[in-house]
Amino acid sequence: MVINNNILAIVTLKEEQEKVRGGGAPLFYGEDEEEVEYLSMLIARITDSMVHDLGNGINILVKH
Amino acid sequence: MDYGNMIVSSIVLGTLARFWMLKVDYRQYPGYPHGYAVHLSLGFIAASLGALALPALLDGDFAAVTFLVLAAKQFSNIREMERTYLLELENTELVKRGSAYVEGIAQVFEARNYLAMLVALVASIGVRLFELPGGIALAIIAALVLQRAMQGQTVKDIAEVEVVDLEFQGDEGENIAIGDVVLMNVGEEEIKEDWQKLGIGISIKPKDDNARATLANKGQRQAILHDVVSQLGVRLDVGVVGYTPLARLDLDTGRVYIMIIPIEPDEEFVKKAVENTPVLESSRRKPLQSEAGRLAAD
């Protein structure tokens, strides 16, 4: 299976859980903005992927 | 009849021509001693084939000229060799050359052996007609003319290159754009700040529709990125893909926009590196030369 250009993970605040549902990709909740930022960075480094900001408080990680 | 002089001097001149061509283009030069050895030896073989053609003909041995066919086969192996080698290395490059660039380099290596062969042939004719000094003079002229004829265009011949500012659009500046074109969406604060501080934008404006079609080619754009990176470095590593330099097309105007964080933060030289990137033979398009293309462009 090719994982390029698929959403690998979704990272967001707990308050935003109405906006997103876990599907193929795991969903990570951070307690605050800082944790969201840290989680996103960490997962991006580990999976060699890129953090994208959807502009509604939700980050997705995609390998290009 | 004794052809010793003629053959030896032609072989030497042809091999020297190959040696000289190894130095002409620093980007496509192997850059390691073994590469030298490989290409000089093959250049020597090419020159030998060229040098032997005239003596064989003069001796009435017309069948012997068919060994030139061998040369063609031999040299297409060289292309194969270079291609395999460079494609193997692609995985180790942070910013890939791209298959179009690799193909172009492989082709140049093949062609330069034909040039060495031609120079040797011309030299042998020169030695025959005007003795050694004439042979040397003719060989030099042939090498210069052939080299000149092989020189392709560079990006600055087909487009105007400018340094432009990156714009940060969206609520938190997460969309990095040039003009109306969003090149990248960055969700990581640290990477975004680096782009704000160190990022350089380049706009490449094609001069006509031929240039527009050429620049739209993905291989051409990758070649530009690779050339800039190989000359100025790039802030990038495995795991931090947010720094990847990108080249994207403005669909309305055909301009190519580039974003990059070079290690050497000199805008002027980034521009220069872009301008001096060769236009790849395999990417060159000429829609204006076709009837439909010409009539459609107004």
What does this 3D model show about the protein?
The complex is a heterodimer of chains A (64) and B (298). Chain A is α+β, with helices and mostly antiparallel strands and 64 residues long. Chain A contains one helix and four strands. Chain A has one helix at residues 33-47, and strands at 7-13, 27-30, 50-53, 58-62. Chain A has a four-stranded mixed beta sheet, covered by helices on one side. In chain A, strand 3 (50-53) and strand 4 (58-62) form a beta hairpin. Chain A starts with 6 loop residues before the first strand and ends with a strand. By secondary structure, chain B is of the alpha+beta class. Chain B has two domains: 4-150, no CATH class; 155-296, no CATH class. Chain B is 58% helix and 11% strand. Chain B has ten helices and seven strands. Chain B has helices at residues 4-24, 33-58, 67-89, 99-150, 155-158, 189-198, 209-216, 218-232, 267-275, 291-296, and strands at residues 159-164, 167-169, 175-178, 181-185, 200-206, 246-249, 256-260. In chain B, the strands form two sheets. Chain B has a four-stranded antiparallel beta sheet. In chain B, strands 2-3-4 form a three-stranded antiparallel beta sheet, with no helix packed on it. In chain B, a hairpin with a 6-residue loop joins strand 6 (246-249) and strand 7 (256-260). The relative contact order of chain B is 0.12. The model of chain B has no long low-confidence stretch (mean pLDDT 90). Chain A binds chain B through residues 37, 40-41, 44-46, 48-53, 55, 59-60, 63-64, and chain B through 170-172, 174, 185-191, 238-242, 244.
Note poorly predicted spans of chain A: none
Query: Which parts of chain B are unreliable, with pLDDT below 50 for 5 consecutive residues or more?
Result: none
Biggest sheet overview of chain B:
4 strands, antiparallel
Number of continuous helical runs of chain B: 10
Number of helices of chain A: 1
Order of neighbouring strands in the sheet with most strands of chain A:
2-1-4-3
* Integer-rounded radius of gyration of chain A: 11 Å
Number of domains in the coordinates of chain B? 2
Structural class category of chain A: alpha+beta
- Give the biggest sheet of chain A: 4 strands, mixed
What's the SSE pattern of chain A? Answer: EEHEE
Task: Give the N-terminus to C-terminus distance of chain B in angstroms.
Answer: 66 Å
Give a count of the beta strands of chain B, DSSP E runs of length 2 or more. Answer: 7
How are the strands of the largest sheet of chain B arranged? 1-5-7-6
| Relative strand content of chain A | 25-35%
Oligomer: heterodimer
